[in-house]
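Duplicate of #3305? Posting structure anyway:
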């Protein structure tokens, strides 16, 4: 208890510098804990999203339940993209009795002509009136919070009659509430990638930042502990006194950090600034997050301060006399960086020799492990690398400023780790983030000259067909049918229509009025699909009834085309002109194909126009995976937030450690000024002390970061292995960091002699 009381007295009732140091440690830990809580709560928010989606998922009646349950409502769900966000329309038909199960957030199912919308969709309808075409009826209410995955979800229940849904792919709803969300916010693999990236982007710099905060004024604190030891305090009690001060500051900072996170959660939750919107209650910290924040920060503070406290307790005279620091152990950094570099370099070599391993359980473990080991080893390698470089530069330079800076690094190599490690880790993590975004972008990117839309032909009336072909933005239309005895199909249209669905300039040999085989050099054909084989084409009339069959022989004359996949034209074996079919007939299983430009505004206008013509008909924008687009938008937003947090943490760690380092050198600065060193020379030496380790660390971060990024791309299964386009931006950013860091440390050099600093020494 005496040790505890002494530690509290020194922390709270010490001199002004001690109180300021205590408050700075607490506020620094608060910022770090707030960032830590934000990162750890992302899986909690995603889980809350998916739990709401599972509660509103419906269980359909099957077998005898469906046959003997006339009192169950009918439902059909359609989802269309609005930019990168899905617009979900659930068409429901209440039973004649008006009862039946209701989804969460809805008191009563809408009747025919009634529409219930989410608050976000209600707001969007005012900005994009074209969406109203897909919601036939008048808006009579809003969906409650319990029925939405998030406050920004675009969701609607549209009331219809049972007759209107009778001939659609509707189901009878037995009850609401499934075991899992049908469309999760982030799938498991994507969530694992996000965790790994945020660990590199935020948690590694955060660890460095917290270590810096709990070691503020480390030199003066060590000297004070050494004085206590020389006054007769035991070594164990000396370490305990230090632990009391750091743990108290860290504990106070942890509580303040959680409060700061809760305030930020309440302010940011529903805005969607981070790429994901949620209800504030969904972002409350879980028990594991509370334990990590409230216990992890004090434990880290204790571990970070224990080494120097033990040194002051065991070697008090050396600490008071400011003897040279021990040389850093290079083998410790090599123990981490060599295995990490070995893993990422091996995968890069496999990519160069075209022996790509692809995604697997082994690579999903080795690549993150290699990246984390490389990042940790990179930081631990800074002190020995800086000391070695400083020794070589000091032996060859004739400039006083460089000599002062290099000899300082040679005597105090640990300074480099505290000052620049946050910025170095930020640049290293930026390369990894770039690779993750490239890999995610390949999942949903469509490189095609046109956008295709597929609509079931027989679900459209004659009037709807005419209107669909004249929707603004549609530049061509055709039909795609199925062959009964082959997985391939037929393309019903003219040469001009076919040309609108292939890569411009790639079509050769087309003749209007003839049945011709389609040949794409990159699409293999089965033996049953080659020239001379016979197939059967079943026909339907305008009412959808049978209209006979047509025997079709694959001709030897071909049209050579190149199709941007995915495309409905890829499966077509032959081009059949409309005149080759009996009047008023079409192939069975026909889809109406429409083509438009690929810009987002045109795609949005076409989807809105088609939804207004046929609200209950499923419209498929070929090649647009709306779930992947939505996930990509969420990932980009969260990673951008992680980048901002990482940047803030890295800059904060740099500024705090630089200011603390300058304050701890007041005595040396005063002594050098007394010896006649000019202020300009002192400022140059101060800049060189920062620029040297920062330049070394950033060059190593760029090289190792690109290796780690390439290893991730090689094993990710995408087509891009080497991110050469991102190198110039990364180099410019790195150079800017060096320049800004050098300028930022100039004011830290004192411009006047401080006799008080010399008197205290």
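Output from current build:
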């Amino acid at each position: 208890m005496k040790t505890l009381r002494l530690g509290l007295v020194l922390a709270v009732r010490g001199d002004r510098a001690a109180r300021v140091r205590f408050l700075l440690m607490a506020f620094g830990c608060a910022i770090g804990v707030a960032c830590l809580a934000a990162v750890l709560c992302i899986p909690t928010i995603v889980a809350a999203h998916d739990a709401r989606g599972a509660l509103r998922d419906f269980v359909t009646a099957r077998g005898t339940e469906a046959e003997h349950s006339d009192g169950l409502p009918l439902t059909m769900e359609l989802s269309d993209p609005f930019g990168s966000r899905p617009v979900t329309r659930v068409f429901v038909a209440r039973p004649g009795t008006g009862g039946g199960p209701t989804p969460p957030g809805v008191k009563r199912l809408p009747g025919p002509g009634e529409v219930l919308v989410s608050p976000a969709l209600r707001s969007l309808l005012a900005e994009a009136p074209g969406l109203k075409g897909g919601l036939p009826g008048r808006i009579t209410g809003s969906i409650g919070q319990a029925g939405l995955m998030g406050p920004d979800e675009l969701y609607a229940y549209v009331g219809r009659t049972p007759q209107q849904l009778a001939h659609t792919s509707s189901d009878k709803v037995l009850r609401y509430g499934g075991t899992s969300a049908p469309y999760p916010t982030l799938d498991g693999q994507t969530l694992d990638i996000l965790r790994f990236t945020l660990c590199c982007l935020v948690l590694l710099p955060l660890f460095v930042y917290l270590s810096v905060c709990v070691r503020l004024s480390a030199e003066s604190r060590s000297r004070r502990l050494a004085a206590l030891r020389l006054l007769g305090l035991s070594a164990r009690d000396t370490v305990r006194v230090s632990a009391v001060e750091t743990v108290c500051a860290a504990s106070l900072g942890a509580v303040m950090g959680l409060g700061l996170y809760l305030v930020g959660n309440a302010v940011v939750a529903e805005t969607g600034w981070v790429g994901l919107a949620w209800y504030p209650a969904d972002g409350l910290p879980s028990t594991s997050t509370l334990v990590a924040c409230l216990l992890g920060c004090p434990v880290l503070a204790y571990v970070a301060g224990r080494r120097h406290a033990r040194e002051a307790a065991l070697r008090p005279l050396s600490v008071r006399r400011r003897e040279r620091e021990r040389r850093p152990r290079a083998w410790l950094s090599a123990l981490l960086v060599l295995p990490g570099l070995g893993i990422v370099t091996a995968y890069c070599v496999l990519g160069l020799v075209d022996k790509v391993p692809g995604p697997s359980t082994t690579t999903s473990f080795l690549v993150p492990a290699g990246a984390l080991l490389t990042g940790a080893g990179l930081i631990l390698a800074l002190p020995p690398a800086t000391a070695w470089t400083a020794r070589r530069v000091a032996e060859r330079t004739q400039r006083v400023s460089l000599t002062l800076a290099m000899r300082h690094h040679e005597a105090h190599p640990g300074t480099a780790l505290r000052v620049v490690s946050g910025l170095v880790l930020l640049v290293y993590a930026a390369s990894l983030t770039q690779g993750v975004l490239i890999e995610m972008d390949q999942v949903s990117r469509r490189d095609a000259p046109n956008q295709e839309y597929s609509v079931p032909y027989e679900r459209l009336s004659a009037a709807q067909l005419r209107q669909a072909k004249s929707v603004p933005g549609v530049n061509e239309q055709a039909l795609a049918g199925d062959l009964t005895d082959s997985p391939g199909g037929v393309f019903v249209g003219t040469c001009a229509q076919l040309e609108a669905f292939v890569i411009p300039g790639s079509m050769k040999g087309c003749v209007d009025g003839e049945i011709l085989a389609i040949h794409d050099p990159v699409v293999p054909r089965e033996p049953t699909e080659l020239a001379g084989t016979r197939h059967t084409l079943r026909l339907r009339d305008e009412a959808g009834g049978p209209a006979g069959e047509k025997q079709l022989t694959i001709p030897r004359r071909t049209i050579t085309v190149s199709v941007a996949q995915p495309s409905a034209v890829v499966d077509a074996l032959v081009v059949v002109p409309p005149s080759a079919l009996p009047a008023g007939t079409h192939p069975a299983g026909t889809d109406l194909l429409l083509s438009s430009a690929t810009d987002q505004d045109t795609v949005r206008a076409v989807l809105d126009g088609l939804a207004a013509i046929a609200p209950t008909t499923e419209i498929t924008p070929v090649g647009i995976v709306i779930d992947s687009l939505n996930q990509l938008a969420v990932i980009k937003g969260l990673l951008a937030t992680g980048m901002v947090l990482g940047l803030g943490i890295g800059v904060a760690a740099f500024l705090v450690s630089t200011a603390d380092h300058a304050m701890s050198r007041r005595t040396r600065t005063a002594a050098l000024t007394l010896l006649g060193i000019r202020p300009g020379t002192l400022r140059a030496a101060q800049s060189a002390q920062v620029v040297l380790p920062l330049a070394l660390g950033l060059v190593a971060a760029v090289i190792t970061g690109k290796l780690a990024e390439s290893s991730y791309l090689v094993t990710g299964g995408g087509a891009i292995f080497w991110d050469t386009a991102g190198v110039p931006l990364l180099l410019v950013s790195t150079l800017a960091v060096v320049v800004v860091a050098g300028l930022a440390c100039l004011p830290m050099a004192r411009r006047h002699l401080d006799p008080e600093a010399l008197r205290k020494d």
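Confirmed duplicate; merging threads. The chain has 23 helices and 18 strands. The mean pLDDT is 76.
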